[in-house]
Amino acid sequence: MVKETSAHKGAGHRQRLREKFMDSGLAGFHDYEVIELLLTLATPRKDCKDAAKAALEKFKTLHQVFEAPVKDLCAVEGIGPKNAFGLKLIKAVADRYLEKRLLNTDPLSNSAALFDYLQHSMGSQDREGFKVLFLDAKNRVLAAETLFTGTLTASSVYPREVVRAALDRSAAALIFAHNHPSGDPEPSPADFAITRQLVFACQTVGITVHEHIVIGANTYFSFADQGHIARMHREYHQQS
Description:
Blueprint: H1 11-24, H2 31-42, H3 49-59, H4 62-67, H5 70-74, H6 81-102, H7 111-122, E1 129-135, E2 141-149, H8 159-168, E3 173-179, H9 189-204, E4 208-215, E5 220-222, H10 228-239
Parallel strand pairs: 3-4
Antiparallel strand pairs: 1-2, 1-3, 4-5
Helix pairs in contact: 2-3, 2-6, 6-7, 8-9, 9-10
């Protein structure tokens, strides 16, 4: 650990936070202390507690601090461009880590890792995004990609584009996910309608849809768990 060359308000507190993290990770940390630790990386000789608390007060949750636009982060007293860069970088790294952890695994038998990835990458966004996980014949993840981004209340999803993306990746099966910025994961009639369209469109080219998950505020709705995906598959075969 490099010794800081000049004392500042909270220097002892900062050192204790670092030692606590090295000893036991983030267990027992308040969210503002997590932000504070990250801010210290770009602010070596200035107390960061007040700025961390101000950021959390402004954006309400740790996720929303990470999701906040750079200009809004820089509007918080004590947070500058270097701090904002660090916060955005750590969020991007975490997203990449969780995505890589899913690659070549079977998300159908590892629902915890799947939800962690989706919640972290989508749960705090203020616009709807539609993500597709592309699976091989053994249900291992080939790739994950956000194909569509919409407004605060809806996203435009085109089944033809989803099928094209799946064929381009030689996917045998798909998992869909989208977020509800309201925090309520209950699917809308439009969510049911587009899911049915996607199931039917994918079936026509021999691609299986396993799941559609709606991400809310630390919770989710599963179309598969509620039996809707199986019902839609049956409807397709009855009409074929």
